[in-house]
Design goal:
Blueprint (H helix, E strand, L loop, with lengths): L2 E5 L2 E4 L4 E8 L6 E8 L6 E7 L4 E4 L7 E6 L4 E6 L8 E9 L13 E2 L3 E6 L1
Parallel strand pairs: 2-11
Antiparallel strand pairs: 1-3, 3-8, 4-5, 4-9, 5-6, 7-8, 9-10, 9-11
Length: about 120
């Protein structure tokens, strides 16, 4: 059974930090890129970062570049997203998803085969 399980969300003040985890199972981890998406209330889901786990190539949307850091621990089939300098506008449900390596770096949701259930991040002002 394919699973992507996010964890690490929570409530934090402006300027604070969180580390999100995405634990993958049920598929060949190295064959996929893992992306992070978020969806705020009343807004469309947006992709914010992606990593091709086989070679470590990283991608960031401009709105999070320099504040968020994506990484992977291939031995644990886990991808992390370190969120620093958080702002109220970062409040959203954060999802991880898996797409074949050839689509690594894309934020087109339809290209992603597997999705996690999401974890809530709330940044208070």
């Amino acid at each position: 059974e394919v699973q992507l399980v996010e964890s690490g969300g929570g409530l934090v003040q402006t300027g604070g930090s969180l580390r999100l985890s995405c634990a993958a199972s049920g598929f060949t981890f190295d064959d996929y890129a893992i992306g992070w998406f978020r969806q705020a209330p009343g807004k469309e889901r947006e992709g914010i970062s992606c990593i091709t786990v086989s070679d470590g190539t990283k991608y960031y949307r401009d709105s999070v570049r320099g504040r968020f850091t994506i990484s992977s621990d291939n031995a644990k089939n886990t991808v992390y997203l370190q969120l620093n300098s958080l702002k109220p506008e970062d409040t959203a449900v954060y999802y991880c998803a898996a797409t074949p390596n050839e689509y690594g770096g894309s934020y087109t949701a339809e290209l992603y085969d597997y999705w996690g259930q999401g974890t809530q991040v709330t940044v208070s002002s």
